[in-house]
Structure formats: C-alpha cells, structure tokens
Design brief:
alpha/beta, FAD/NAD(P)-binding domain, 2 domains, eight-stranded mixed β-sheet, seven-stranded mixed β-sheet, 19 strands, 32% helix, 20% strand, globular
Length: 520
Amino acid sequence: MAQSEKRYDVIVIGAGHNGLVSAATLAKLGKRVCVLEKENEIGGMARNYEIADGLQAPRIAHLLYNYNPVVARELGLAEKIDKAPISTIALSDDGRHIEIANGALRYADGAEHPDAAAYAEIRRKIEKFGKLLAPLALRSPPDLSEGLSLAGAGEAAAIAKLGLELKMFGKKDMREFLRIVLSNIYDLALDEMPDGEVAGLLAADAVWGAWAGPRSPGTVFLLMYRYAYGADPSLPKRGAGAVVDAIVDVARSRGVEIRTGAAVSRLNIKNDAVTGVVLEGGSEISAKVVMSSLGAFPSMKMAGPQHYDVETVRRLRNVRAKGMTAKVNLVLRQEPKIGGVSLAQIAGRFVIAPSAKYVERAFSKAKYGEFPGAPVIEFVMPMVSDAAQRGRYLLSAIVQYIPYHLKGGWDDAARDRLTALTIDTLSQYIPELRENIAHVDALSPAFIERETGAPGGHWHHGELSTDQLLTVRPVNGMSRYAFGVRGYYLCGAGAHPGGGVSGAAGRNSALQLLKDGVLS
C-alpha cells in the first residue's frame, strides 16, 4: 500500500458541516488536520448543488434551526453569513392562511386570530424550557456509565447546575416542565385550542425529520429542542450551503486540508490505538486521531467490529435511525402564486399541516411502510443564484412521512410516486403549479442515505428519543465522543446533541479529544 508522506494530527472522515467544524476548531489550536470526503462536493446534507444550468438549490437542508451562536462566534461566521428570520405561513384549505411573524400569530390578511393567545402561551413555555436545554448542547454529556457516584467533580457540577437552573424557574414552571417534557404535542396543543392550522403547525414543528407522530411520547421535548435558540427559522442568502461555504473558508484559512473524492475504506489500528486510515484505492494516511462524522454503526464498521465487545456491537446495530423525510426540489418557469398570500409574504416559510389529526394520519400510514394519503410539507422559495433572477424560480420542499422502509422498496416507480404525491399536495394551494414545472429532483430517504451516508437517510443519524439522548447517545458508554478505540472519535449528528445545522457535535467532540489528551 502507498503511504502518504505527510502525517496529520487529526483526520476527519466526512466533509459535512459537523466534520468541518471539528476540523476548523482543532486547526485554530494549531493542529494539523485533513478532512476526507468520499463525494466530489463538500457539505453533506447542508450543501447547495446545481439543479439546472446555473441554478443552485439546497440539496437537503434549506433553513437554519438551532443555529448555534456560540459555534458561530468561535468560528467567526457571523460576518460571513447573511441571514434573517422569516415568517411562517400555515396554509389553510379555505384560503384564509395563518402567519407567524416576529413571534405573533394572526391571519395572513392581518386580522386577529382566536387562537393567538393560546399559541403565544404554548410558544412561551416551549421556548423558555428550550433555553434551559440549550446549554447542554455545548457540553459533553456527563459520563454516567459507571454510575453517578463515580462521575467526576466537573460532571457532577454540571448536573447540579442544571438542577439549580430548573429550580430557579419557580415551582409553577418547574412543575409544568416536568409535566410536559416527555408528553406528546397533540395533547398539549389540543388542551389549549381547537384542532386546525395552528395545532397542525405545532404538531409538524415537533416531528420534522423524526420517526414519530404528534401523539408519540416525547414530541414536546423534540419541539423544545427545535426551539432552543428561538422558534423562528432563518433563511440564509444563497441557501444553507452558504453556511458550509463560510465554514470551509475558515477551515482552509487555518490550514485545514480538504480532499474530495477520497473515500475511506477502513481505519489502521495498532495495539488498540488508531494510526490512520486506508483509502479505497489502497493508499494510507497516518494520524494520531481519526474523527468520523458518519453514523455510529457505519463508524464502528469502519474500525472493525473485532475492536468492540459483543454488547457494544449489538447496541450500535440497534440504534434507531429510520428516515421519514424526503426532499423535493422544483424548478419553476414563473414565480408561483398562492391565493391569500401577498408578494411580501411569498418569501416566507410555508407549512402544509391543516390539523394535528392530519399530521397523525400521515404518520399512521408511513409507520407501516406506506405512502401517506397526504404528506406534511414545509417549503420555501429561495432565490439562491443569479440565474433565478433571469426568470427561473426554485421551490424547495421537505416532505415528511415518506418512509425509508417503503413496502416494495425504492425504485424509479416509487420515486415517481413521491414526486406525484408532492406535486398533488402542493397544487391544492398553488393551482397553476403543475404546468409551471420545468424540472423535478426528488430525493427519497434511501437515496439520501446512499448519497450522504446518513443511516436510514435520517436527519439526526438516529432518533432524538429519551433512550438515544445525552448520556446514551449514540449508546451508553460512548456519549463523550470517544468511540471505543483509542484515538477514534464520533463527531457527527449521531453524537450529542444531534442534528440540525448547528455544528455543536463537531465543536464538542474536538474540544473533548483535546481534554482527553490523545494528541499529547
């Protein structure tokens, strides 16, 4: 095998945003870092791509949620990314849509909505409790694999601080937090308002990317996680790929080497410690540490199951990661028109979830491997390139409840069904959409897995459920990013705190390996 002459401190497998954040964080501290990406493009789920001649589109992620201000500040991204909060329009079958702008809910025509006060109170609670959870995203989870009594002083202090912050809420809010945190969003919403577009929007926001319905336990926690840094998403100019571009610029300016078309075949391990990687072509690259931004189970296979005990292999194999979300991009010849939506509002985020029952019905079909009769859809119409200003328009749609494990499997016919189902649903609100379509690109969860390596095509590389969070993410004993073999670390969405274009997992894992002293 050919041996690379250059030796690195750290090799990062995968040039998604988390891998890039890990690399940039370590390079800032003087470490020699090489990022290896099997594809020819950088960015993973957050990248842009050319969907048609000269027209750039967000491949998968199109909005920023949980954009972590600490990560952005540490990397110096604030001045590099032009982003702004956008309004949300919950589309209604009767054409009287609902708008949420600057935290206030009203009808899209400006009239007061009867559920505005109930929505405001639910949002207040979810955001407040989400802010309690937000600091946890920037800490390595405490190591409780041997029990709380053996946790280090720093870890015990972190747990105590969380308890103190919860106590400072006051008895009423503390009781409310404990009452709702593991409950379902369906009951929480319908206890306060009749079912309709407002309840449907809350239900949809709690389940994006998840294998869960509104009635599933823990969906209130998922909404808290989503709202941890504010309930209003932002749309970056030039799409989510602008975030990746900014991180790449920072990483390269710090000396990070990024290689594309460089697929890693396996790790080199000697005396139970990482010594580097072997590429698919057979060449070897040496490093003291290897970080993987892949999912937990693929990362284990890359090291080799012989380096893990039987129970750990079983747990990693059983990490739940069944994708439920597809992506459909439409290139349009003319700017689409939605009845009841003004020209100023057309630049917002749109959600098709007319009721919480609608969302639950869609999940009820998908959990058995079937297409829903009507999917839940979030779409935006970003103008992300100069070509868009020359008469072409883009509609970027996240389509929820499209199962990874589809009955009959994913073939061209199934992909055509996904396309037809998406267009049929959108056409109920955009009447002239069908004849306006110039090009379609539909990405099933199975395709997303093949292209990005995300297990099951899952946004988070694994469900964000109570048994796959914090100290048990990805599995018990591996929550602090060290991944079984000395010098091997997990840095992607499968690690704490999960997915979203935040970079927290990448940043935390980089800081943890430095704390562990594996580069000494």
